[in-house]
Inverse folding.
């Protein structure tokens, strides 16, 4: 009876827990109003919306000011997204954090559904679900649900890059503070770097199937698209950090190592397009920890795997490049 009473008390506490919706904004005049409106429109009753304008040079701040006392806001010089996220964390009064990038938006019941889930699952530190990707163009939009395949092991989700982008989870404020907040000098892969430290800090992750966060892709000028080599290097650092911690703590299962090396392999295939020496070094690293590594998935179709195992990575890539060239030529001839 005592356990049931305690669980009931925790549920009641959670159902009354305040949520802070935190929006960092930099030059998002076109989108910031919809982000704020989607935050204000959340059906969870106990919420606050806080916006930081991070030195915008467009009309973002004027749009933010139009919301008056419906929100709390602050403006300052441009210092970067993670500095803004940490400042928002300082300002937040809630127990749970909903981060929302200024060019994204939330469906109205996103927070309510996740908070109701938290109430039935004990003491979680982070709840996440799949993201809806909105491909936006001047000609229209297309929506794509980004599924999450492995629900039981967040380490495998981190390695395979399936833990979702910043707006998908609800984050317990104290959990972020416990691991030192957002890293100021992390130019990309920012949420994944934080996920790594949360996992190392033994914070508890929970999956809920709600897809209430909409991640809009509309520009080729984001960090992730503008400097792909930097993204690859930063992701490799995170993969290595996960492997090092898991090996040291004797938690590096074969499934986790396979996920880490599969991620490295996918990066190597992409890196081959711009730096072949770098790509080969990645393959060498894979084979040093797993000489019998065999790639899988869409990045390694059957004919590629055959070439990889019989001829090696370099030859497999050259054969793949030749095949792509033949396909392009045949398509050109058909036109």
């Amino acid at each position: 009876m005592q356990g049931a009473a305690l669980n009931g008390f925790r549920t009641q506490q959670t159902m009354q827990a305040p949520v802070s919706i935190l929006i960092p904004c930099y030059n998002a005049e076109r989108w910031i109003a919809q982000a704020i409106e989607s935050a204000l429109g959340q059906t969870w009753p106990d919420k606050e919306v806080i916006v930081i304008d991070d030195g915008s040079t467009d009309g973002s701040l004027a749009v933010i000011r139009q919301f008056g006392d419906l929100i709390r806001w602050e403006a300052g010089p441009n210092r970067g997204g993670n500095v803004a996220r940490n400042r928002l964390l300082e300002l937040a009064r809630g127990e749970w954090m909903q981060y929302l990038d200024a060019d994204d938006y939330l469906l109205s019941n996103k927070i309510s559904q996740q908070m109701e889930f938290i109430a039935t699952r004990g003491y979680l530190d982070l709840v996440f679900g799949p993201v809806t990707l909105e491909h936006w163009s001047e000609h229209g939009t297309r929506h794509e649900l980004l599924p999450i395949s492995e629900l039981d092991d967040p380490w495998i989700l981190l390695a395979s890059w399936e833990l979702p982008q910043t707006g998908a989870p609800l984050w317990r404020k104290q959990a972020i503070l416990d691991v030192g907040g957002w890293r100021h000098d992390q130019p990309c892969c920012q949420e994944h770097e934080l996920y790594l430290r949360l996992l190392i800090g033994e914070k508890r992750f929970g999956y809920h199937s709600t897809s209430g966060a909409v991640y809009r892709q509309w520009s080729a000028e984001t960090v992730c698209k503008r400097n792909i080599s930097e993204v690859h290097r930063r992701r490799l650092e995170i993969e290595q950090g996960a492997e090092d911690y898991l090996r040291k703590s004797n938690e590096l299962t074969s499934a986790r190592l396979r996920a880490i090396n599969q991620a490295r392999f996918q990066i190597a295939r992409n890196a081959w397009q711009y730096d072949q020496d770098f790509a080969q070094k990645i393959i060498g690293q894979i084979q040093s920890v797993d000489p019998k590594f065999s790639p899988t998935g869409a990045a390694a179709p059957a004919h590629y795997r055959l070439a990889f195992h019989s001829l090696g990575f370099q030859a497999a890539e050259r054969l793949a490049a030749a095949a792509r060239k033949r396909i392009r030529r045949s398509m050109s001839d058909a036109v």
Notes: DSSP finds 14 helices and eleven strands in the chain.
